[in-house]
């Protein structure tokens, strides 16, 4: 094990830092750029540099680079607020899912548009009465010849208003046990019958949406993996979603800003907090590195995400404390205070992730249903 970073990785970090600084110069908010920072031109720039599909095999259209190289690029970009959201979901989890479960035809059709940054994706999982409990979801897909017909509603679908494709989970066997009758589909967001209604969040942003499906026709070739086999597939997909560096650095730019602007480094209490946060950052970073190098136990991303997102909430609270009365004025600090509760909700709540940890990793008795 060698914790020292070689020059190539330092070079990549410097390149990513320069790119991020150039693109964020005129942006008022640098936080949460992986989810609210939608920018198709920036996706094109990432593609131009070979930073989309970085670790995917060359035969599949990727760039065959190492997980550490991707980590170095994205830790730097997101920590500095680069607007990566247009390509993020696809690069983080849709591409890897298609590589694992997609048909050769699905891979041929979709991976190139992800690698060249021209397709934006959203994830249609949560519903009004099915968030933590994915098995409760009711959007259904019924087979009609060569097509599936989808009816139902999704909610909190990030980026749906600007997405070209939705990775949709729907119920395909209403008679099966709840978790056994779900399947996954690639749905063209321009299909007739789809209506998207953006939702205004507590910060005034409108990145997540309600998505309504009314008799939406999806070709049967767009079913991903095993019919009625979504539950296992989605658990794998969540590992990509929960174990990444985005969950640690969402508000790193704000932390740096507060250190430079308000934090009194001579104050013993502030110094204690800075030391605790810097230690927390390094612990979170090691947890993420273990995930991206494939060295974490299966299911451990629940612990990684819990630690990292609770850390982000501690950062938000620290920023509010050092900003003092300025935190009450609408600006980056106040915005982050309003946004921070979402860190431990999106991608699976902390309570659910602790249940997963207890039951799957520690072998505790299952919670009573
Ligand atoms: C910013 C943001 C972006 C999002 N983007 C997307 C997206 O792109 N696509 C998508 O599909 N979804 C998205 N979501 C939705 C997110 O995945 C859900 O909000 C989350 O899974 C929780 O579901 P819920 O909101 O229905 O809460 P519920 O499941 O109703 O939970 C409510 C509360 O009860 C607790 N709880 C529930 N069950 C248990 C239990 N068994 N044990 C202990 N506590 C429990 C929860 O922890 C929570 O505190 C997003 C959410 C946010 C905040």
What does this structure look like?
It is a single chain. This protein folds into three domains: 113 residues, Acyl-CoA dehydrogenase/oxidase, N-terminal domain (Butyryl-Coa Dehydrogenase, subunit A, domain 1), CATH 1.10.540.10; 107 residues, Butyryl-CoA Dehydrogenase, subunit A, domain 2 (Beta Barrel); 119 residues, Butyryl-CoA Dehydrogenase, subunit A, domain 3. 46% of the residues lie in helices and 15% in strands. The strands form two sheets. It has a four-stranded mixed beta sheet with strand order 1-4-5-8, with helices on one face. A four-stranded antiparallel beta sheet has the order 2-3-7-6, with no helix packed on it. A hairpin with a 2-residue loop joins strand 2 and strand 3. Helix 7 runs parallel beside helix 11, helix 10 packs antiparallel against helix 11 and helix 11 packs antiparallel against helix 13. Bound molecules: flavin-adenine dinucleotide. Flavin-adenine dinucleotide (FAD) binds next to strand 1, strand 3 and helix 13.
Topology:
Blueprint: H1 7-24, H2 33-36, H3 40-48, H4 67-79, H5 85-101, H6 104-115, E1 121-124, E2 140-144, E3 147-158, E4 165-171, E5 182-188, E6 194-198, E7 208-219, E8 223-224, H7 230-242, H8 246-249, H9 252-261, H10 268-292, H11 301-323, H12 332-339, H13 350-361
Helix pairs in contact: 1-4, 5-6, 5-7, 7-11, 9-11, 10-11, 11-12, 11-13
- Based on secondary structure, the structural category is alpha+beta
* CATH 4th-level superfamily of the largest domain: Butyryl-CoA Dehydrogenase, subunit A, domain 3
Which ions, cofactors or small ligands are bound in this entry? Answer: flavin-adenine dinucleotide
The side-by-side strand order for the widest beta sheet comes to 1-4-5-8
**Count of discrete domains:** 3
Low-confidence stretches: none
Q: Report the strand count.
A: 8
Distance between the termini: 43 Å
* Total of DSSP H or I helical runs spanning 4+ residues: 13
CATH architecture verdict of the largest domain: Up-down Bundle
């Amino acid at each position: 094990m060698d914790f020292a970073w070689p020059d190539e990785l330092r070079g990549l970090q410097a390149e990513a830092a320069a790119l991020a600084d150039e693109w964020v110069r005129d942006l008022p908010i640098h936080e949460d750029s992986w989810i609210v920072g939608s920018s198709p031109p920036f996706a094109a720039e990432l593609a131009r540099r070979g930073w989309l599909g970085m670790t995917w095999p060359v035969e599949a259209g990727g760039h065959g680079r190492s997980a550490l190289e991707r980590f170095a690029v994205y830790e730097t970009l997101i920590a500095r607020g680069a607007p990566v959201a247009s390509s993020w979901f696809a690069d983080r989890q849709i591409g890897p899912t298609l590589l694992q479960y997609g048909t050769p035809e699905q891979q041929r059709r979709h991976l190139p548009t992800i690698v060249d940054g021209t397709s934006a994706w959203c994830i249609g999982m949560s519903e009004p009465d099915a968030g933590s409990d994915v098995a409760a979801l009711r959007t259904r897909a019924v087979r009609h010849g060569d097509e599936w017909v989808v009816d139902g509603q999704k909610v909190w679908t990030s980026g749906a208003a600007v997405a070209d494709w939705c990775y949709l989970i729907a119920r395909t066997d209403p008679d099966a046990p709840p978790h056994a009758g779900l399947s996954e589909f690639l749905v063209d967001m321009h299909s007739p019958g789809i209506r998207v209604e953006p939702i205004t969040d507590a910060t005034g942003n409108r990145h997540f949406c309600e998505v309504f499906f009314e008799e939406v026709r999806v070709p049967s070739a767009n079913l991903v993996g095993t019919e009625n086999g979504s539950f296992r597939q989605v658990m794998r997909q969540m590992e990509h979603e929960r174990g990444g560096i985005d969950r640690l650095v969402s508000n790193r730019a704000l932390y740096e800003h507060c250190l430079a602007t308000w934090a009194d480094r001579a104050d013993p209490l502030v110094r204690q907090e800075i030391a605790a946060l810097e230690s927390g950052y390094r612990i979170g970073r090691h947890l993420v590195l273990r995930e991206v190098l494939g060295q974490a136990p299966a299911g451990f991303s629940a612990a990684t995400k819990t630690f990292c997102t609770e850390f982000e909430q501690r950062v938000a609270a620290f920023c509010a404390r050092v900003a003092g009365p300025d935190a009450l004025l609408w600006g980056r600090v106040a915005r982050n205070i309003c946004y921070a509760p979402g860190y431990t909700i999106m991608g699976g709540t902390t309570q659910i992730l602790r249940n997963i940890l207890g039951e799957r990793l520690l072998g505790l008795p299952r919670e009573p249903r």
